[in-house]
Amino acid sequence: MPESVVVEAIRTGRLELVPLEVEHAGEMAGVLGDPALHAFTGGAPESPEELRARYARWAAGAPDPRTTWCNWVIRAREEGRLVGTVQATVVGGVAEVAWVVGSAWQGRGYASEAARALVGWLRDRGRTVVAHVRPDHVASAAVARAAGLVPTDETHDGEVRWVLPAVPGEN
Questions:
Q1: What is the pTM of this model?
Q2: 147 in helix, strand or coil?
Q3: Which fold has domain 10-163?
Q4: Where are the domains of the chain?
Q5: What spatial distance separates the first Cα and last Cα of the chain, rounded to whole Å?
Q6: Longest dimension (CA), the chain
C-alpha cells in the first residue's frame, strides 16, 4: 500500500506549488477570469466568492474517505504572484492529475514545469499517475507529454487517458 498523501509545498526552478487555501480565491479569480480558459472544460469564470466556496469544499476533503483531493496554486517566484493551479485526485494507488495556467502566463512553460513537478512528487509517493486530455487540446497534450505521460488507446467522456509509464524494475 503506498504511503498516504499529504499536500506540501513543491519547489521547481521558477515555481512554487503552494497548498491551496481559501484565501487564494481572490487572486485566483483574476488568474482564472478569462472565458477562453473554459473552452475545453465548459462553464464560465467564477467570482472570488464562488471560488472561496469551492476552495472551502475542497479544503473539507472528498466525501469518500478513500479519496484524497490534493490542490495547489502555482506561484511564479520571480513575479511573486499566482499563475495557475495543479491538482491530483488520489484513490488508492492512482492519482489523476490536472493543471491550468492563466491566459496571461501561458506560453512560458509554467504548466509543463508544474506538471513535471507534480507527477514526480506523486511517483515518489508510489502512485500511478494518469490524466485525461481532450484530443483537440494540443497545449494540454504537450504538457502531459512534457510531464512524462503517454497517451493510451482508452477514452473516457471524449478524453484520451494518458499514463506515466512504469520504470523498468518497478512493480
A1: 0.93
A2: coil
A3: Aminopeptidase (3.40.630)
A4: 10-163
A5: 12
A6: 48
Q: In one letter, which amino acid is 73?
A: V
pLDDT values of the chain reduced to their tens digit, one per residue, 171 residues: 566 789 999 999 999 999 999 999 999 999 999 999 888 777 899 999 999 999 999 999 999 999 999 999 999 999 999 999 999 999 999 999 999 999 999 999 999 999 999 999 999 999 999 999 999 999 999 999 999 999 999 999 999 999 998 765 555
Question: Which residue type, as a one-letter code, is found at position 20?
Answer: L
SS3 (DSSP) at 169: coil
Strand order of the β-sheet with 15-19 is 10-11, 15-19, 67-76, 81-91, 94-101, 128-133, 159-163, 150-156
6: region left, alpha or beta (phi > 0 left; psi from -120 to 50 alpha): beta
Between CA 1 and CA 36 the distance in angstroms is 40
C-alpha cell of residue 164: 506515466
* Count of residues making up the chain: 171
